[in-house]
Amino acid sequence: MTSETPNNSLTKVCQLSDIPSNDMRCVSLSDRNVLVANTSEGVFVADEMCTHEDARLCDGNLSGTKVKCPLHGSRFELTTGKVLDDPANEDLVVYPVTIVDNDVFINLSNS
Ligand code: FES
Q: What is the pLDDT, as a whole number, of residue 51?
């Protein structure tokens, strides 16, 4: 799959229209799997796996900009990646997002 990117450090994740409002999806990229959340505060992209154990956060619940793990219930703030509840105690990796037309890009150069 090729796509036009605004600059070389950006990676296309999906089309914005693929993610309904106030919903999230997991997306497989060539080197990692990410969670894309389309919230009323904006679009956020983070690593798909919970930092506690092996649970895909896109199988959990999205409430505003907070995602709740389906396995033990830790919540993460998607604007910052901060973990909000036990038992997870490591923050989630979040990526800077750029939207161009209907395309969602993330910047992997800092990760
Ligand atoms: S696997 Fe997510 S809180 Fe335990």
A: 98
- Measured between alpha carbons, how far apart are the two ends of the chain, in Å? 22
Predicted TM-score (pTM) of this structure: 0.91
According to CATH, what is the number of the domain 10-107? 2.102.10.10
C-beta separation of 97 from 78 below 8 A: no
Neighbours of 19 (CB within 10 A): 19
The helix/strand/coil state of 67 is: strand
Q: What is the DSSP letter of 62?
A: E
- % of the chain surpassing 90 pLDDT: 88
**CA 109 to ligand 1 centroid distance, Å:** 27
Probe ligand 1: pick from 71, 75, 86, max atoms within 8 Å of CB?
71
Cα within 13 Å of Cα(108), Cβ side: 16
